[in-house]
Amino acid sequence: MKKLLFLFAIWFSLSLSAFGQNACEYFKKGLVKSELKDYSGAIKDFTQAITIEPNNVTYYLRGIAKSDIKDYSGAIADYTQAITLNPNFANAYYRRGGAKSDLKDYYGAIADYTQAITLSPNDADAYFDRGYAKDDIKDYSGAIADFTQAITLNSNYAEAYYNRGIAKNDLNDHYSAIADYTQAITLSPNYAEAYCNRGNAKYELKDYSGAIVDYTQAITLNPNDADAYYNRGLAKAILNDIQGACLDWSKAGELGDTKAYDLIQKFCH
Q1: Which CATH number does the domain housing residue 72 bear?
Q2: Chain-centre distance of CA 35, in angstroms?
Q3: Please, what is the Cα angle at 192 between 180 and 229, to 5 degrees?
């Protein structure tokens, strides 16, 4: 997530005495280009500003622009330089953690998110993203703790409820997972993934009718959700609605789920 671009722009406009005029012009151009999603152009302007006058914020913003074009290694180098110039730069640690996570360096990401939290203990996003990284290394209990802290700091954090539900489901705590998915849906009624995963949890609890209701709502919100069709087909088959199951598996196959054709071959001919 982008953080504080506007505040940095204000900060710099109030601090020109500490920032050479030529460097400032390139910096401002880079900001505008970033907001216009011209990230390559922004990188060039931030580079010019850094050449004239290196500054931790300019490195940080160039890192964001590099992340936006998926140059995560380049972004990490810039965030690292920003941290070198300002070791208390919490957002730089947070962003570097995100870039490391994008490169699947989850342990490195966790270390950076932890440092960001140390410097900024009320950052719900840092807890959320650290929880996400912990989930990626299958530390589900640790992920749950972080998602819970994110929720404590932001009670309307639908994604935190949803992802905590996923972690609970991975620990076979399906009832609690359903409660979290339900809260995510309450906060974000069009959350198709939450309906689908709540359906999965109900399926695990053998509430096949309830699962079908949730899969159906997921499909209503996202008609291209192959998993929802495939899983709804499984639930229908268990309830002896073979015709309905075959129709769902056929749609799942059309949407790219090739394993659905195996079930069609076995049950629908």
Answers
A1: 1.25.40.10
A2: 21
A3: 115
Mean pLDDT (the chain) is: 94
Q: Are 159 and 194 in contact (CB under 8 A)?
A: no
State pTM to two decimals.
Answer: 0.91
Taking the CA atoms of 213, 177, 158 and 193 in sequence, report the sign of the dihedral they define.
negative
Report the distance separating Cα 129 and Cα 230, nearest Å. 30
Confidence of residue 5 (pLDDT cuts 50, 70, 90): low
| CA-based end-to-end distance of the chain | 49
Mean pLDDT value across residues 102-126? 98
Residue 183 lies in a domain: no
What residues contact 217, with CB distance under 8 A and at least 6 apart? 192, 195
The number of domains in the chain is: 1
Identify the domain containing residue 33 by its residue range: 1-87
Residue ranges of alpha helices (H) inside 103-207 are 106-119, 124-136, 140-153, 158-170, 174-187, 192-204
Q: Using an 8 Å Cβ cutoff, are 181 and 192 in contact?
A: no
Question: How many residues are there in the chain?
Answer: 269
User: Is 42 inside a domain boundary?
Assistant: yes
